[in-house]
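Good day; I would like, with your permission, to put a structural problem before you. A protein sequence and the structure tokens that stand for its backbone fold form the material at issue. I would ask you to consider whether the tokens describe a fold that such a sequence might reasonably adopt. I set the record out below, with my sincere thanks for your time.
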Amino acid sequence: MTIRCDLYRLLRLLYAGRLAGDLDGVCQIFANDAKFEIAGTSQTSPIAISATGLDQIRTWLTLLIKTFQMSDQAVLSMIIEDAAAAVHWRAKIRSRITGATVPTDLVDLVHIRGGRIASYTEFFVPR
């Protein structure tokens, strides 16, 4: 039960931090050797990000937080099994560059180790 509660708490901190644009808060949730991947498509092209280790993750998160603002986030479903979770969520994502806002569906696959996120994979599709 403790791992399940820890994972639920970490996910809530992760999503709150992303919504708030809190780079330091989000980075503290990841293990130093974590793997971080994002795959999806924009309206014009596919997007893929892959990082290993907190330094690379921080670099990508800095870019993502500076470029995109999230709002109206809603968790649609969350399955937690042992130290892993699958989360289907939805948010409005606004480009700080173009000003366009796109409703987006996202699915996150998360594994924790030692009270931190060890692996994070996110898939997204604009609606």
